[in-house]
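Troubleshooting log. The previous structure file for this entry was overwritten by mistake, so regenerating from the original sequence record. Sequence copied from the archived sheet and checked twice against the printout by T.R.
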Amino acid sequence: MLDERSSTLLKLITSSRTATFKELTQQMSCTRRQIVYDLAKINQWLNSQGLPLIANQRARGLTADTAVREFVLRSPPQVKFSTYLLSKEERVFCIIIQLFVRDEHISLFHFTSRFKTSRNTALADIQRANQYAGSFQVAVVYTRGKGYHLAGEERNKRSLVMKCISRLLHQVNGMRILERVLADKQKESVFPARFACACSALKEAEDALQLVYVEEKVNAIAVFLAILFSRGDERQHVDFSQEEQMLLRQTREFDAAKLLIARCGQDDDELEVCYIALLLLSISLKRSDYQIDSKHMQMLYQLILAVVEEFELLACVAFADRKKVIETLFLHMKPAYYRIVFQIPITNPFLQQIKTEHFDLFTLVKKAWERFEHVVGIPLPEDEIAYLTLHFGALLEAQGGLHIRRKQAIIICPNGVGTSNMLKEQIEKLVPEISITAAISLREFQEEHETQCDLIFSTVFIQTEKPVIVVNPILSSLDKATILREVYTIVHGKSRVAPSVQDIMQTVKRFAVVADEDGLRSALTTALTGSMAENIRRYKPVLKELLTEDMIQLHERVKDWEEAITLASQPLIGIHAIEARYVEAMIQNIRRLGPYIVLTPRVAVPHARPEDGVKKVGISLLKLSEEVAFSEESDRRANLIFVLAAIDSETHLRALGQLTELISETDNVDKLIAAKQKEEILQMVEHYSRQ
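Regenerated output below.
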C-alpha cells in the first residue's frame, strides 16, 4: 500500500511518456531526494504486484512499462492515509471548521489529541487560526464556560469557514482531511452521507434553474452545506436588510433554495432560505442563458461595457468580437457580482502563478476594473481579479489567426470557464496540429463516455483508454515543453531527439560561471519550447528595453496636441518602428473619438492599430514642462505623452503593464514631470521594469 505522495508520483509518471526528476520536483513541490525515496517505495510495490519497475533512462528520464500503465489504469493503488500528518496551514483550517461545528466544550487537550501535537504546537496553531480569522473580523477566543469558540458576526463566520473549505479542497488530501476532522465523536463519520445529500440537492437545483455550474465550485458549496446543516446550538442565522431580502426573493434561486433546504431535511426559515439562495447565485457558471433579468444585472452589464472599453484603452487593443467579450465576462461576473457584494469568498489556487506568469495582464485588468469597484463600493479580491485575467487572456489569445486542424482533442478542467478557455487557446497555439474541440468538466466527461477525440488534455487524473496528457491549468514554460514532447510522441509515434535542458546547463557551466541557475534553466526551457513550437509565442520586452534614452525627449512646450503627438513620434520613426501614416492615424482617431488617450491626469498614451503603419513594437516619451490640452476639459491635459506602437494584441502587454504601474502613482507622475535629465526618468523606468 502506498502513501498519498507516492501514489501521486506514480500517477504523474504513468500519465506521461517520460518524466524527468526536474519536472517531478516542480510538479510535486518536493526535493529530488524525496522523489528518489518515493520511487523506491513505488518500485517495491510494483515488484510485489509482479510488474516491471520504473526505469530511469539516461537522456530520457523516468519511464513506465505499458503493463504498468494499464495496471494502474485498471486498479489504482490503495492509499494509506492514517499516518498522514497535517501541515500547519491544514491544522489552522481544521481548527476553524471544528470550532464552527462544535456542540461541546473544546479545550486545548482536544487539539493536542486530535492533531497529535504538543501543547506548545497546539497553542501556536490556535494563535495562527486567530490571526487568519481576524482578516474576516472573526476571533478565536477562550472562556471557561464555552471553551474555545468563534466570536463575530454569523455572516463573517460563514465566509471564514467557506474560505477554509475552499483552501482545503485544493489540497491533494482535502476531502479526506475534512472527513477526518468531522468524524470527531463518531467512529464512522456522517459527513460523507450529508455531503452526498447536498450534492444531490444542488444537482436538482441546477436542473430546476436550467444552469450548468462549475464542478469545482459545486463541491465546495456542497461541503459547506453538509457542515452548516450539522451545526448544533452554535447555528445562527445571517441577517439581511429588507432591501436585500426583497432582491433575493425576486430571483429563481430563492425558490430553488426552498427545495434544497427541504431536500436536506432542514427547517424552512426565511433568512436561511435567503442565504442559500445567495449561495446558489454565487456559484460560478459554466453555461447559462444570456439574461439581463433585473436592474442590478442591467447595471452590471453597463459596467462590463465600460470596463471593456477601459481595458481596450489601457491595453491599446481593440477586440474584434465585442459581443463575445461581453457575453463571456457577463457569464463570469453574474455570480461574481453576488460574491463580491455579499462578501462570499473563493480561492483561486492559481493566484500566485497568474501574477507571476501574466503579471502584465493582471496589472492591466486590475486597473480596468477600478471603475467597477468605484460603483459597487467594494474592492475586488485578488482571487477574482486573477480569474478575470484568465478571461481577458483567453479573449486576447483568440484574436490570433487561423490554426492548422488535424488531430482532435478535448480539455477536461473542473476549474471554470476562464481557466478552460485560457488553456484551450494556449494549447492550440503551442501545437497547431491539434484541434481542441471542447473544454468540459470531469462530470461531463464521465456522463459522455464515448466522447470522440484522439487525445485528452486534463488538469486532473482520469481513467480512460484514450491518450492523456496531464497539465497544470496555468501553463509554465516547463508545462509547454512537456506538452510538445508528449504530443510529438503521440502524433508521430516516437520521441523527439533534442538536447535536454540539463545537458545544455552542464555544457554552459564548463565554460562559464552561472550566477542564476534557476533563471538560466527557465530561459533554456522557454527557448527550447519556442524552437519546437516555431516561436509561436513572441518574446515580450520589458519597459526599459523599449523606452531607452534615445526614445525620450524633454521640451518646454508645444503649440497644440497635434504637434505634441507628431513630435513625440519622431524617435519611433527614426528607428523605423512606425511609418509617418501611423502619426496621422493617431491624430485622426483623437479627432473622431475624442481625447480618450489621456488615461490619467497629465498622462496621454496615443496609439493606433498595428495595420496603420507599425513595423515593430516600441514606446517613446515626450515630456513637456507646460501641459498641452487635448480638449477643453481640465482633466484632459497632459505633460507626458507616451506613444505606443503595438504589432499585435500581446507583445507589448508586459511593457505596457509596467508603464501602467509607473503612471498609476501620482508621486511618480510628479517626479517624471519634474525631471530635468533623461537619467532621472530612466532610473524610474529601470525600477518598474523589474516588476
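Residues 295-315 form the longest helix (21 residues). Archived copy saved in two places this time.
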